[in-house]
Design goal:
GO terms for molecular function: isomerase activity; ketol-acid reductoisomerase activity; magnesium ion binding; NADP binding. With 330 residues, this protein is α/β, with parallel strands linked by helices. The chain contains 18 helices and 9 strands.
Length: 330
């Protein structure tokens, strides 16, 4: 098993003599800022004037200033705004204020790995990426535990970037659970691959294909929704708690036999070949280039596909059925 690092291998002192600017107060930003604060770290939040998050951060007890101000007064700057905004915010409001020996911190490797942000050689650059959404990172920390994370060092000008990364992971509570070392390349490429082939692209197309097949064969849309989408959660919860073994232990033997016999006909050699192709496009930078261009052009493809997806019958039937489910938070 890969080496895990825990609290005892991380020294918070590397952060305690620093001032940390958390840029952005969204999913990750609010969790990092509050956890660091409660770990005794000197934190300031960087936002823009007119930001919706500003009041929230202040009412949570944090000091908030504009991004440039935060970058000026801090020596550890953490970029926790959406990835596609990071380059322009960095260039305009952060880069001019980077001093020798400062640290630039990320929670995802995209902008560094694909050279959208090329920091000067006189700063440290590292990543601490929690393996969970921000609200979980915050909730679990408050319970005295942590969400596991990955960490990676891109450059270590001070020679202490790795120690800093571990200290940061400790500050947000991650070393309570364990952190795993990776590289910006590995984190970025596997993250993109996972979301495209399995988690987001793979799962939604699988659900739609199942739903369409049943509906086109004359079955009720509502039944198709329950079988192909709603029940996904039950299965995923079991997978999450206990892997394939627990899921297969919990389902009926009929379901388990069907699983063994049919799964490979659905996700077949062609699918695996296509996955390899997708991975190559991620590795070569082809996907990154396409997505960056798409953003430069105000997302023509993104917007039209989004619209088309919203007109799929599964959307309407899902809305109606979920309105019957009192336990789902609106
Ligand atoms: P969010 O979309 O939640 O970040 C939104 C925050 O950024 C808001 O506080 C928003 O303010 C602020 N913001 C937007 N534009 C600016 C700007 N120009 N200047 C300053 N602040 C701005 O981001 P995430 O937390 O989802 O992602 C942050 C990073 O963490 C990304 O690199 C992502 O890949 C990574 N990550 C995310 C995970 C997740 O679970 N979401 C998991 C692991 C990593 P306002 O709302 O007021 O506009
Ligand atoms: Mg991602
Ligand atoms: Mg069934």
């Amino acid at each position: 098993m890969a080496k895990m690092y825990y609290d005892k291998e991380a020294d918070l002192n590397y952060l305690l003599n620093k001032k940390v600017a958390v840029i952005g107060y969204g999913s990750q930003g609010h969790a990092h800022a509050l956890n660091l604060l409660e770990s005794g770290v000197d934190v300031v939040v960087g936002l823009y004037s007119g930001s919706k998050s500003w009041k929230k951060a202040e009412s949570d007890g944090l000091k908030v200033v504009e991004v440039a101000e935060a970058a000026k007064e801090s020596n550890v700057i953490v970029l926790l705004i959406p990835d596609e905004l990071q380059q322009s915010v960095y260039t305009e409001y952060i880069m001019p204020y980077l001093d020798e020996g400062d640290a630039l911190v990320f929670a995802h490797g995209f902008n560094i790995h694909y050279n959208q942000i090329v920091p000067p050689e006189y700063v440290d650059v590292f990543m601490v990426a929690p393996k969970g959404p921000g609200h979980l990172v915050r909730r679990v920390y408050k319970d005295g535990k942590g969400v596991p994370a990955l960490f990676a060092v891109h450059q270590s000008y001070t020679g202490k970037a790795r120690e800093m990364a571990l200290a940061y992971a400790k500050g947000i509570g991650a070393t309570r659970a364990g952190v795993l070392e990776t590289t910006f390349k590995e984190e970025t490429e596997t993250d993109l691959f996972g979301e495209q082939c399995v988690l987001c692209g793979g799962v939604t197309e699988l659900i739609k294909a199942g739903f369409d097949t049943l509906v086109n064969a004359g079955y009720q849309k509502e039944i198709a929704y329950f079988e192909c989408l709603h029940e996904m959660k039950l299965i995923v919860d079991l997978l999450y708690e206990g892997g394939f073994e627990k899921m297969r232990y919990s389902i009926s033997d009929t379901a388990e036999y069907g699983d063994y016999m049919v799964g490979k006909r659905i996700i077949n050699e062609d699918t695996r070949k296509e996955m390899k192709k997708v991975l190559k496009e991620i590795q070569s930078g082809e996907f990154a280039k396409e997505w960056l261009l798409e953003n430069k052009l105000n997302r023509p493809v993104f917007n039209s596909v989004k619209k088309r997806e919203l007109s799929h019958p599964i959307v309407e039937v899902g809305k109606n059925l979920r309105s019957m489910m009192s336990w789902i938070e609106k």
